Amino acid sequence: MMKIALIGFGVVGQGLTEILRNKSKELVQAGFRGELVAVATRSRGSLYHPDGLDPELLLAAIQRGHLDYYPDVYGLYRNWDTLTLIKQCNADVLVETSNTNLETAQPALDYCYAAIEHHMHVVLANKGPVAVAYAELQRRAKAAAVKLRFEATVMAGTPSIRLAMQALKGCEIREAQGILNGTTNFILTQMEGGLGYEEALAQAQALGYAEADPTADVDGWDAAGKVMILARALFNSTITLKDMEVQGISQISAADVKAAQEAGEKWKLIARVTPTSGSVHPVRVPLSNPLAAVSGAMNAITYNTDLLGDVTLVGAGAGRLQTGFGLLSDLLDIAGVGALS
Ligand code: HSE
To answer: Which of the residues 95, 120, 143, 226 could staple to 115 if both were Cys, CB 3.0 to 4.6 A apart?
Structure first.
């Protein structure tokens, strides 16, 4: 049984919990037994039960606004601070889904370090620690003989990281480029359908695509964080936000969208990473470009390789179950489920 401590219980943490609840039978059949033993939030309480927490009751409690609504059960501990919880709990894996901070990565980075020190594997949806401290996290994880996984940080559960780091092993990847933010792609698509910018953004928030502070999406920083992650994971690059040219979509008006449409083009926020550079900026692409067909919260990435040429992956870039699945895929990977024999 894999015991899981979940940090952050927003859209993504709830998405994973829903999947664990809804697919428990199929997962057991596939050879995966996992249970949440701890859930910690910044302002909505925390819970720990060494024998496991009930996903249904967790979701019901958080829907009422606070984990204090989880019923009293013998052996349940409440409202420990997050670091104490990580140090005291019996979890095998820490799943980090708290809000991304691309400057300090805190407090999530300290949670990851504490977990590794306590010989827990670490799985992240939070982009901050991977973007800011990838090399140090890997160093510590290797020294502690635990695994660090972060599929959900780029393109939700669409296996962009696994494709590059596992399936394409043996190819040299020279460049990665694509649409790496679901919120902005959704907004641009809705604007093409005639919706106003603000309304489209509100929809993206309601659908759980946007970051807690959506300026990270619309100003390009979320995509830039993903560029940092890819730069580190693919190229061991230490590129920082300051080294990158980053521009979002907030300058794109309804008139700009219309002008592109009239010219048979679409605006797309394109992220690009090479061994020595990274950038994010809006580009008008012709309808004949395959990226023009990637709409809504879908994302796409093209890896340019020496042996295969271009390899393109298209799939969900954001969302509750989509990102929850990214976490699950890492948990399955750590458990060895799905490994080829
Ligand atoms: N806010 C992000 C996006 C979530 O819209 O792509 C997934 O990282």
So the answer is: 120
